[in-house]
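Researcher: Good morning. I'm working through a list of sequences from a screen, and I'd like to move beyond sequence-only analysis. For each chain I'm collecting a predicted structure so we can compare shapes side by side. This is the next one on the list. No need for commentary yet; just the structure.
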Amino acid sequence: MMPRISRLAILLLPLACSPKDESESQTPSANAQGPALTEELTYYADIKPILEQNCVNCHRVGGIAPFSLEDTNTALRLHKAIAHATQTRAMPPWLAGPGCQDYANDRSLSEEAIQALGAWSAAGAPAGDPVDYVAPPPQPEQLSRVDRELMPLESYVPKPRTNDYRCFIIDWPDTSTQYITGAGVQPGQPEIVHHVIAYRVPPQLLGAVKAMDEAKAGPGYTCFGGPLEGGKNLPQIAHWAPGSMGRDLPAGTGLKVEPGSKIVMQVHYHTEHGTNPADRSKLLLKLDASVDKEAFVVPFTNSDWVNNHTMLIPAGQNNVIHAYGAPFTQYAASFTGGQLSASAPLKIYSSALHMHLLGQSTRLHVERKDGARGCLLDIPRWDFHWQSSYVLKETMTVNPGDRLNLECRFNNPGPKDVNWGEGTEDEMCIGFVYVSP
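Model: Good morning. Structure tokens for this chain:
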């Protein structure tokens, strides 16, 4: 039997930035280009274009990052911090390890760009001449059109100086079946909205969601672990994070929403910088009446961990590894109630991984019937604050008999044993894949 999960799952859009301290390191993965190294690197000619293309989507006035790099004086003043954050790969955020896959949403810096930032800083961060600045090309990915805008009925004032996860129930207005083929978010207060995940609530689960909402005062309800308690799963339909302009789903695919459904929008508010204005963020959707292939977000994990709490992470132990594998087409068929066939190939478009705060590393790979292995996603240094989906440049086909394998490694320095659970101090080990026939 497949597990029932309700978790913070990030599948559909890339995470571009976060308000975390930028001194933490990340795993290298080169993508964005920088200038050729010379002895005369200047801010306007060489550095400003790098910052414009890779940093100011979050480091801007009103953005979620703690300072703006749109301002020349700030960039010049913080040149050492910029060089350090990029050399250690703390910025831009990108957890995927090298040598696993090529991803369409790779936002990491090239080695050339990192070296340019370091050389410019080491030379004393010369400003140069403003006339030498040439704007970089715009980011190509964005939501191609908006057919529906949805938002909570009321504004919400998040809790001050904390991470506040709040869920809001939103009516679905359509009286005919629709397919979500793209999604984005217009944050009401960009400086505090860390990310947004939207879920579809089928009619049979609406009572449980309403009960949670009615038990809490004010707009919405607290939902760190997800929109439902007790391990119940809701289908995801959208995800957004700062810096994203929204994204169309892979051509010809879409997520089905039937009449009578509701939408739950989970908003993660980050107010640790001291501001907590009232927010009413808006979900932006691209819709189509039909698609070539209905797609599904399939959470992949061990039902025994979920149902029987067998994922023990003993107190005081490091390098605790939990792993699980299963024939994936069979798993997906069971999870979707037969909407996907166990005897037919599946296409994987994107993947994500999820743990909590004790996680150290995690990976997801395919093991073929002939014993060959195909890496899907490898995160050698886990960071809870940088969760994202990773969109494959080329889809991966999984055939009947191929296994999907998941592995998570944990350190538990605390005095208490930890096991599977919904809370912050519990743990999880889940892979997520966006698939179609």
